[in-house]
Every structure is written in C-alpha cells, then in structure tokens.
C-alpha cells in the first residue's frame, strides 16, 4: 500500500468519525418522532408565539382551556400554559390546578401544583398529572385555572385549526369560564371569545410502535 492510498484511507476514516460526532450533537426535539413525547401544540421557537398579547390586564380568576384531538393513541401527563410572568410571580399564585375532560365535560384527570411548577421556554409552565390514556379520533378538553388572571393569548389564533408538525395533535377552539374556585364543582369551560387562542396545550406522549 503506497503513501497516497494510506492517506486516502485515513481521510475516509476521519470523515466517518467526524460525521458520527456531528450526528451525536444534533439536538433531538421532544415529540418529533412517534413515541418520543411529550408533544405540545406550541413547539419551542414557533414564530406563532410572537403574535401573542403578553399579559392581559384582567385580574379575574379564570379557567382557560383548549378543545383538541389526536390522530394516534397515547397518554396525557400534564397541561402547559403560556404566561408572560416571572417564575416567582407564577409560584406566588400557587396552588395551580387543571383538568382533562371529554368533549361533553366528563372529568378524566385532575392535577395540581402547590409547591413548584415546571417551566418550558419561552413562556410555558407545566402542571403535571397522573398519565391518562386518550384515544385517536376522540375530542378532549384540557384546562388550567388561574387565580388572578393576567394570562397571555393570540388574538384570532383559532380563525384556523392548528396542528403539530407530526400531525398527532390538532386544536380548533379555546374555551374559558370565570370561576373563583377550581375545586368544589367548578363549571366546565364552554365560552369562546373572537376565536382567541389562550395558549393552553396538553403534554401528550404518543404510544410507541
């Protein structure tokens, strides 16, 4: 084997190794592949979020929700909501509560946070709940109760249906109801205002296959 041939073999080996390192460093987007979850209606970096009104002045207690469905079976283990508030401001409102319902208002799961709440960039906070199974093709509602209002929203965000890049999740309307207490018979959210999007999403994990 001549020197030139050895150099070509070394260069090829180096190229393969460098490619492997580059692949290892590519960030994996949660929910990008079936079974990798959790997925959200609002992925990080979505320019849609730039359209949001960053905190309304309304300070009334309110339950904000979204009506949605999935094309694949899986589980919901939390609810996320966009709040343009500091972590300390959000935690000053604890306890926070939320629920997963069927389309007709039957409660499937309820979660609460009394000590801490998980934050996701750029503005989302997650309320965890016990993993709850959802079926493909059925309509569900997830809602998040906020003491003191001051939420964010996208005006006319649901003039058109929204769906994830994977096609697993879609949503077409937000809902709300003013209520001073989430527990003890809180009403099911049914109101809608001008197709506003209140930026509420399930944290959904598709079944692996």
Automatic annotation (TrEMBL):
Residues 54-200 form the DUF4082 domain. Pfam families: DUF4082. Residues 1-24 form the signal peptide. It comes from the Bacteria. Keywords: Signal. This is DUF4082 domain-containing protein. It comes from Virgisporangium aliadipatigenens.
């Amino acid at each position: 084997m001549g020197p030139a041939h050895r150099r070509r073999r070394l260069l090829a080996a180096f190229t393969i190794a460098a490619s492997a390192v580059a692949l290892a460093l590519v960030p994996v987007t949660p929910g990008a592949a079936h079974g990798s979850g959790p997925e959200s209606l609002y992925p990080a970096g979505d320019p849609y979020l730039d359209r949001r009104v960053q905190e309304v002045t309304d300070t009334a207690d309110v339950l904000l929700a979204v009506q949605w469905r999935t094309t694949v079976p899986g589980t919901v283990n939390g609810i996320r909501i966009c709040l343009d508030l500091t972590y300390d401001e959000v935690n000053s409102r604890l306890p926070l509560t939320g629920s997963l319902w069927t389309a007709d208002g039957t409660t499937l799961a309820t979660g609460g946070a009394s000590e801490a709440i998980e934050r996701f960039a750029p503005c989302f906070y997650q309320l965890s709940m016990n993993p709850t199974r959802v079926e493909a093709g059925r309509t569900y509602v997830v809602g998040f109760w906020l003491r003191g209002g001051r939420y964010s929203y996208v005006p006319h965000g649901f003039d058109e249906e929204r769906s994830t890049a994977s096609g697993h999740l879609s949503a077409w309307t937000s809902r709300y109801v003013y209520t001073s207490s989430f527990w003890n018979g809180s009403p099911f959210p049914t109101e809608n205002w001008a197709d506003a999007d209140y930026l509420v999403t399930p944290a959904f994990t598709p079944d692996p296959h």
